[in-house]
Amino acid sequence: MIRACLSALALVLPLAAHAQGGVGSALPGTAAEARGTGDLGVVIERATGSVLVVDQSDRAALCRVEGLGDLSHASLTFSPDERFAYVFGRDGGLSKVDILTCTLENRVVQAGNAIGGAISDDGKLVAVSNYEPGGVKVFDADTLEQVADIPMGSKTVGLADAPGSRFVVATWDTGEVWVLDHSADPADPQVTQVKGVGANPYDALMTSDGRTYIVGLFGEKGLTTIDLWADPPRPRRILPDYGKNQPDLPVYKMPHLQGWTLAGSTYALPAVGLHQVLWADAASGAETGRTDVAGQPVFVTARPDGRELWVNFATPDNGTVQVIDGMTREVKQTLQPGKGILHMEFTPRGREVWLSARDDDKVVILDTRTYEKLGEIEARAPSGIFFTTRAHRTGL
Amino acid sequence: MIRACLSALALVLPLAAHAQGGVGSALPGTAAEARGTGDLGVVIERATGSVLVVDQSDRAALCRVEGLGDLSHASLTFSPDERFAYVFGRDGGLSKVDILTCTLENRVVQAGNAIGGAISDDGKLVAVSNYEPGGVKVFDADTLEQVADIPMGSKTVGLADAPGSRFVVATWDTGEVWVLDHSADPADPQVTQVKGVGANPYDALMTSDGRTYIVGLFGEKGLTTIDLWADPPRPRRILPDYGKNQPDLPVYKMPHLQGWTLAGSTYALPAVGLHQVLWADAASGAETGRTDVAGQPVFVTARPDGRELWVNFATPDNGTVQVIDGMTREVKQTLQPGKGILHMEFTPRGREVWLSARDDDKVVILDTRTYEKLGEIEARAPSGIFFTTRAHRTGL
């Protein structure tokens, strides 16, 4: 009878369900009980097509989910209940992972080559931005069935959600921004096209209020912002000198615009190809200063209180992380937390920062005030770290 | 054997555990399974000493927990994993509710008369602000054992968390602000006293970055702000005309400062005793305009994108809610969602607003763009509505 009961229990207990193998595998110490999901996170293991579910409170891995395809350039979003992660792989795979039961609940290969996605503000639609065949496809968040297919005659980049069941995306080939409004009919979005955004948008960023969409340009200098509250929305050029300075300048990595930070009314952003962080006034778009740093910056990420900015770097300086004081704009700390630091994620209220050290096969956890190491988690070539609090944010 | 198995299951299944009665009671439709907690919430039932656990996704109540004492002026905070709610009752009761299993896990009566609390940024300490005997007491978030007792020779108000295991509170009798830093020793906080804050602080507000603490004064006009990044922090008076205008002016309810909103660089705040919302520049503290509204405003709450502000009112106008356009500062919508609207809570990305209609014994759910009613939930004289996303915010 005990064995029978245990079998029955195994059917309902979340993290134990796949402890015997299968797609998900529980790591030692996995708790076999109901639990809150507000302190969970997911780490992309880029080389092995797997993700690691982690627990912020215990600073530990809970389990690994495999079989997600090519995650060499992957990102993810969370469902509003903070239970499901939608993982966008480079190979066009869209995977839905249940982080409570540690299972790959569903997976569709929806394109040949994809570059990220977003979830609508009601949690019902997941959109994916595609290089091949281009355009955007939209899926039912519950079933992953296709709801809408919006070809745009172009590769798309910088897909982000906006309030009111909207998605915003930029088109690489045609230099446009498309606003897709699914609020009236999920399957047939109302489309607003903003033309003349600039040559070859390569990435974009939505401010956290969902109002301003900022497009980075590969084909020319400067950036373009669009005020989505304006009717109609129009492109506005800012930071006209921002971008690659000389044609022969080696740029080891074009910085993601998600590496930007808006602290108060000031942007801090990685200079392209230079060992500098740039400061710009958010209202005017004018540059207001520069801070010299240890390498080519990739992410300039504000601690949640905005008082410090943490910077990581492109190769060959990707073992260094620097901390800039947001008031003095001076480097106050230089750290060597591990080899190949690809990403930094703060706990929601900023007490800790988690860093992926790809070439050390671990995630390193630091106290954001003392800079002491609080813990480490083994991970296979980790890249992006995503905490569930992202479920509640606009513009990701 | 089946019965024995079911008994075993009942021990581990979260929401079914108390379906047979006891402290928690499951409502019809309760799901007996593990679930994410990112879309849960808690509604205070002020007259019955109970709380209702609600599900944002299903727009439904999950269960009720009773036995929390006097909740006539109650608030709560959440643990970082979004599983536990710490409920601060008027009678000095501190209750820890497990919203997954729907149980009152622990309860201590820690004072004779209390006025709110906060949780530290590492989730380890819960602080309570007391009228009687005054001061602040700090408890272990896990066990509710007392960790520290900080008498201040005064009633205390406006307790809020700040980054780095700190709490900030104002003293009614002595006109001070105390900063308690528990980072080195939880049991023996380092205390910074800011004197000369003004006569009789009655409430306070922390900005969401944990930098600026704003104190409302009952004994004189104006408000006092303190920049917690300054060393030492000093009081600065703003809005010198803010407050009760004539001694004989009837003020039906002193507005909570949590009713303030910071939208961009502008504060929107309820005028005391007047049928107006005031606008002020956050940097200078100067008033920049007024909007006439339908009654004495209580809460002026920004939709998460900041484009609209929703306003509720003191009696006799507490059946009305108005929506102000954040760009034009004009009232764009007047609603009558129910009787005795005490509180408004937005879903994290602003798609819906939930309103407590105390005198209708229900929670009313509106679409924030169409203003259509999306649902209702029966509740006993509901007051505060708290969604779990608050676990991730600073300064609550």
UniProtKB/TrEMBL annotation, chains A, B:
<protein>
    <submittedName>
        <fullName>Protein nirF</fullName>
    </submittedName>
</protein>
<keyword id="KW-0732">Signal</keyword>
<feature type="signal peptide">
    <location>
        <begin position="1"/>
        <end position="19"/>
    </location>
</feature>
<dbReference type="InterPro" id="IPR003143">
    <property type="entry name" value="Cyt_cd1_C_sf"/>
</dbReference>
<dbReference type="Pfam" id="PF02239">
    <property type="entry name" value="Cytochrom_D1"/>
</dbReference>
<dbReference type="InterPro" id="IPR011048">
    <property type="entry name" value="Haem_d1_sf"/>
</dbReference>
<dbReference type="InterPro" id="IPR051200">
    <property type="entry name" value="Host-pathogen_enzymatic-act"/>
</dbReference>
